[in-house]
Design goal:
With about 290 residues, the protein is mainly α. The protein has 14 helices and no strands. The longest helix is centred in the middle third of the chain and has 28 residues. The N and C termini lie far apart (about 50 Å). It binds a DNA duplex (21 and 21 nucleotides) through α3 and α6.
Length: about 290
DNA sequence: AACACCCGCAACCGCACTATA
DNA sequence: GTATAGTGCGGTTGCGGGTGT
């Protein structure tokens, strides 16, 4: 007996999300929370399957997302974690607040894989790639690195710094767990002690902010309003302002960042609460 | 300028896992 | 114990923009 599809595909929209759809989904989730993904598209008035809504929220709409290029530190950490955890992207993503597993997976497949191959390392095993020539020369185990290339040497050094002994890795993993535990405890303490009324703050936030226009800054371009590409990064707005001076686009992004900061400080996104839950607690963590 | 090719990334697909009836 | 629903996860696909010819 075959498995039923996650939803009826007939009549459902697929492909890139429009601004209107994003607004509907975002407004619905922020107002109602998430109880059941299958019901979300129906209640939000979207012709999408619940799975698609979930993915869109997690990978793009979540306000705590950190966009933009990976830093060298992040890349090093990613390589280290991949060596330990393999392709368990969600577990790896847990070490990068604001990054999604999809984003990390894409970054690995497009950049880091190449970087490691360039350094003569097998991206899946993290061990040196051996060739027939190397084996016959007794060079097995040596990365293929052009000795006179400064950039290559730099990259190699960077990578060597990343590879740490296994016991050290275990220790690091234990430390990571401790940090997470401390964060959870910290939040619980703040949740109880804080005196800020969340429901009031929530209302104020929505009164002062036009989420719809901030979800994607391309809303300012009427020609893009129907089928916009979902790609937007801080880099984009920075580039715009660098090349053309202050633009409405970068202003939009500033507003968006401001909104993210506000919401981020208000809501415990890691364990997403519904508005009912929030109102029940009635308190906010204080930064 | 036009075309082909490449690359990055968002979105989709299907399987796995868990909870529940 | 079994079937089913709901959700999470990892692999893959395909579109769109960038770059080379």
């Amino acid at each position: 007996m075959g498995r039923k599809p996650c939803c009826e595909k007939v009549g459902l929209k697929r492909g890139p999300w429009t601004i209107d759809e994003d607004n509907k989904l975002m407004n619905f989730i922020l107002n109602n929370g998430i109880h059941c993904w299958r019901l979300v598209p129906k209640l939000a008035g979207l012709m999408r399957c619940g799975k698609s809504c979930r993915l869109r929220w997690i990978n793009y709409l979540r306000p705590d997302l950190k966009r933009g290029a990976f830093s060298e530190v992040e890349e090093d950490q990613l390589i280290q974690l991949h060596a330990r955890l393999g392709n368990r992207w969600s577990r790896i993503a847990a070490h990068f607040p604001g990054r999604t597993d999809n984003e990390i997976k894409n970054h690995w497949n497009t950049r880091i894989k190449k970087k490691l191959k360039f350094l003569g390392l097998d991206p899946s095993s993290h061990k040196p790639i051996t060739t027939h020539l190397e084996k016959s020369n007794g060079m097995e185990g040596e990365p293929i690195v052009e000795p006179n290339s400064t950039s290559l040497r730099e990259q190699e050094n960077n990578f060597i710094n990343v590879v740490v002994p296994f016991d050290q890795q275990q220790q690091q993993e234990e430390e990571d767990i401790l940090v997470l535990q401390n964060k959870e405890e910290d939040f619980q303490v703040h949740s109880n002690e804080s005196t800020i009324d969340l429901s009031h703050g929530y209302e104020m936030l929505w009164e002062t902010l036009d989420v719809g226009s901030m979800v994607n800054p391309k809303t300012i371009d009427p020609s893009n309003s129907n089928d916009y590409s979902p790609s937007f990064s801080l880099d984009y707005s920075l580039d715009q302002s660098r090349n053309e001076g202050p633009s409405s686009l970068s202003l939009q992004e500033n507003y968006r960042q401001c909104w993210i900061d506000n919401v981020d400080s208000m809501l415990p996104w890691d364990g997403f609460l519904t508005i009912e839950d929030i109102l029940y607690f009635g308190k906010l963590p204080v930064n």
